[in-house]
Specification:
Layout: H1 2-22, H2 30-48, H3 50-65, H4 67-76, H5 81-94, H6 104-107, H7 109-121, H8 148-170, H9 178-196, H10 201-248
């Protein structure tokens, strides 16, 4: 099953690489052509899972809306875990909320990363071809020790993991346990940076590209709507405060 997935992705990637060559990128400049192919490949994958991201955003928004009801249930059935689980599931079903709906889009890039590991392991550069890209001498070379290139790529991989997660957390209301989420983001980013020290540069380029696309999606799907919603709520609160002040102001009697 895994080999079949790798084979399909290999054919897909080869087709994209051939397309890049057909568009005019010199065939001997394999570093550039393969990087362009991986950027195009990542964009296609992210486009395919965009509906899941939109669904995840809606699910997370609904989850935030029912938090007060969930807290009431937690207080009401504090001594009855089985009843609490039953009522919580019922509440989520009534509001069309999935516990795992928000996690799937975030987890999907990882198996794709490991499948690409198998894809690139089988790719051999054309003898004499230029496989460099920017400051990377060879995009297919496995790291030999921890050098300048490895450190820079590890930092970029960690940042491309952390920044979208940070933006997502800022778009969500502050709740108890928020620090745990922040810590989890840091740990996940650190793990990705550490793992990238063992990966081929082209794999890390895939991850960084995906992180940039995820950052853009998070900004428009999560952060921007959250900012607009917060602004509307603040305006309503300000209007309510003005109305309350007007009502509480004593009227002067006419003589």
């Amino acid at each position: 099953m895994w080999n079949a997935i790798v084979n399909v992705m290999t054919k897909m990637f080869d087709a994209l690489h051939n397309l890049i060559i057909a568009l005019g990128v010199p065939k001997h400049a394999e570093g550039v052509s393969y990087v362009l192919a991986i950027i195009l490949f990542t964009a296609i994958i992210r486009l395919l899972i965009l509906p899941l991201n939109i669904k995840s955003t809606k699910s997370n928004a609904k989850m935030q809306e029912i938090q007060p009801e969930m807290k009431k249930l937690q207080a009401k059935y504090a001594n009855d875990p089985q009843k609490l689980q039953l009522e919580t599931s019922k509440l989520m079903k009534e509001n069309n909320v999935s516990m795992f709906g928000g996690c799937l889009p975030a987890l999907l890039p990882l198996p794709i990363l490991f499948a690409l590991y198998g894809v690139f392991r089988n790719i051999t550069a054309t003898p004499g071809a230029d496989t460099s890209f920017l400051f990377i001498p060879d995009i297919f070379a496995y790291p030999k020790g921890i050098g300048f290139v490895s450190i820079i790529l590890a930092i970029l991989a960690a940042l491309s993991t952390y920044i979208p997660s940070l933006l997502l957390s800022k778009s969500m209301p502050q709740q108890e346990g928020g620090m745990n989420m922040s810590t989890m983001n840091i740990v996940m980013s650190g793990m990705m940076g550490f793992m990238s020290l063992q990966f081929q540069p082209i794999l890390i380029i895939y991850w960084i590209t995906g992180g940039i696309i995820q950052l853009i999606q998070t900004y428009f799907l999560n952060y921007l709507p959250a900012v607009k919603k917060k602004k509307i709520e603040e305006e309503k609160a300000a209007q309510a405060k003005i109305q309350k002040a007007k009502k509480s102001t004593p009227k002067t009697k006419k003589r």
